[in-house]
Amino acid sequence: MTRYEFEQIDKKWQDIWDEKQAFRAEDFSPKPKYFTLVEFPYPSGQGLHIGHPRPYTAMDIISRKKRMQGYNVLFPMGWDAFGLPTENYAIKTKTNPEIITERNINHFREQIKSLGLSFDWSREVNTTDPDYYKWTQWIFLQLYRHGLAYKKEMTVNFCTSCKIVLANEEVVNGRCERCGGEVVHKVKSQWMLKITAYAQRLIDDLADLDFLPRVKTQEINWIGRSEGAEVDFPTSSGDKVTVYTTRPDTIFGATYMVMSPEHALIQKWLDAGLIKNADEVKAYQAEAAKKSDFERTEMVDKEKTGVCLDGVSATDPISGADIPIFISDYVLATYGTGAIMAVPAHDTRDWDFAKKFNLPIIEVIKGGDVEKGAYTDVAEGTLVNSGFLDGMSVAEAKRAIIDKMEEMGIGHSKVNFKLRDWVFSRQRYWGEPVPMVSCEKCGWVPVPEDQLPVRLPPVEHYEPTDDGESPLSKLTDWVNTTCPRCGGPAKRETDTMPNWAGSSWYFLRYCDPHNDKALADPEKLKYWMPVDWYNGGMEHVTLHLLYSRFWAKFLYDIDIVPTKEPYLKRTAHGMILGENGEKMSKSRGNVINPDDIVSQYGADTLRLYEMFIGDFEKSAPWSPDAVRGCKRFLDRTAAMQMLIKGKGSSSKKIESGLHKAIKKVTEDIDSMKFNTAIAALMALENDIYDQGSLTIDEYMTFITLLNPFAPHITEELWADLGGEGLLSLAKWPEYDESKAADEEITYAVQVNGKLRGTVNMPAGIEKDDALAAAKADDRIKGYLDGKTIVKEIFVPGRLISFVVK
RNA sequence: GCGGGUAUGGCGGAAUUGGCAGACGCGCAAGAUUUAGGAUCUUGUGUUUUCACGUGCAGGUUCGAUCCCUGUUACCCGCACCA
Fold it and tell me: Which one of A125, A256, A601, A788 has the fewest CB atoms closer than 10 angstroms to its CB?
């Protein structure tokens, strides 16, 4: 073979690897284990996107190299197959989603297999398989038993287009993350998961993990921890209002209080007739309730609105000052206590509000001009107008005031999180049924574990009902059941789980995918877990990644899994954009189909190009021309065998080049710098062509280094030239520093910081000899003649620099 | 507004304890070969006629700055009234 004959060899080697089960991970092997993970895809009807192979190939390269380095590698693949697009397609075509899913999976599997990825296909999982979702339901029951799943009547985000309830994480700029539809608030009874109970640990345990810094910061910001205090303010009604503040030190500057329009006490005061301007207050409440999330987002930076309560006021418990109470939608009911003390001098939002409503602004921290704007610096400035706090720094005052409040019994320090509990119910068909039964006498009763899985029953219509209930609710035969506790009449839960459920634990199932007694054998989990390296998209950091860490931590707490964190290392890939630099989409007409590239240039070309396209972490535009450059490189690699002469080493230059390449490729794979690893191999190949010959041993090493990137062509060449066994299972080359050393090094010579020439010198040259040689160089001489050398700098292996006067 | 990031030829991108800027690939140009070629091979390719100038912009530190410091501009991503 003198070029990459992909038409003949791609399929051939894929079949051989399959047949020999070359990439099968072995439970309990004495070799060191290595668990590499890619995010399993949602098998959509569109088939594989050109973006999919990028992370898959990257992790395949890492897995293949690890395998060749003697590791027992677990590199699995599966299907995250519950979800809305399938359900919507089912509605449109009146086809069973199960059938659509099977068809899509088969198509995806075939496409993925055509890329020659070294997955252990014997461990394939599918979230929609009852043998799989039995355990998703089982985990839900454990969460329920431990008080971490609860049903709650609450305001939820509802996508008007998908007709589905969304988790907070699924609402983007007030719109549906998936379809962009408008999100409104609805009050519904929902299953919730208490992820907030793990908020602190989800932050703390990041410290020991090898996650990209931006992944860590994004998770930390999303969880949104803040330290402050809760303080009780007495009111003229006799009720106390508790506020949350991160700036208790500024309490002497509190000139009014703001409560969210939804605050329970407002309703109480209205009912008791304490509020004289009740009509105005009610009107404001109604208006606030009407606003969708999108409108509310739009409100940011717009003028503040609100209504002052006439008839109820509050008292500052420290200063004793009487202050008015407002309601305003800039205070959220869902964060803190739903009420704040407003300190306009030192909070921008309060300042805006105070200016609009002509409220007093009292400076309590010196350092700014509070008539011009809020002074919010906490690092500098001292307390003024604050009684016993005067003269203290912000940090000192915080401590002092909290001590005082605790002493008085009116407040205490408090940590709050932005993270909310996870809305876990969906009123849809294509998801795992929530395994709960509602009994008139016993309330919510879990389905006994021996009755799992609660299978999705066949239905005739997949549309959600007009009242927003799941299609399952129409199946009276299925809904009506008996209570597992008392045997009386009961109804099944008709909500299903969100598509994040099955993906929250799939990596565990890979360790033991066919177990029907447990979600996985504890011994196998102990052997394989944690995942050593997990690569995925940045878009999943506050969704899937956080959810699955939560589940893994819970399962660790109840002794199901052996590690407190599921993933040791997390990296993220960039997107592949269209040729025009825009995101690929049908409407833009810039979509590239991976099948076309594979059939036109071969799988190895696609793999190589996606790795060569640019920095793995960044997005990069597709270039059809550059794809051909990669094909050319592979063709030249095959043709290079015509240059083979003899054994051993052909020249010092190629020997050292080869060893440098071993080092470079090995290190670059470990740091995901695939583009420079490939560039190094291309440069070496150019050097070999320049020399005109190489030995069989050198050639074999070269194709071994290339194998993780281009497994088909290198496997074929290896076999052609009499290589033993499969190249994919051969030994990774060892780097030998002594062989990588050059005999001669080109030194750069500078005079007064400017490059004036280069001089070749023996590798081990001493400083004095090097300086003498540089001074003797004709070109350099010209710059030194007639000048005094005031400084001589020698950087071994790199440069010589003269400073002259 | 807050948090994170980026800025280098015609294009994608290289270059780290500060040491030859532009590796590698694409594109382009000339030539060879070919019936032909979106094939292959060879050579050249940052700008400039020269001096010289060049890593978003303006300064600074240094013998020496894409890299460190100060200021500034543009763009991208995430969050967004979280008290």
Answer: A788
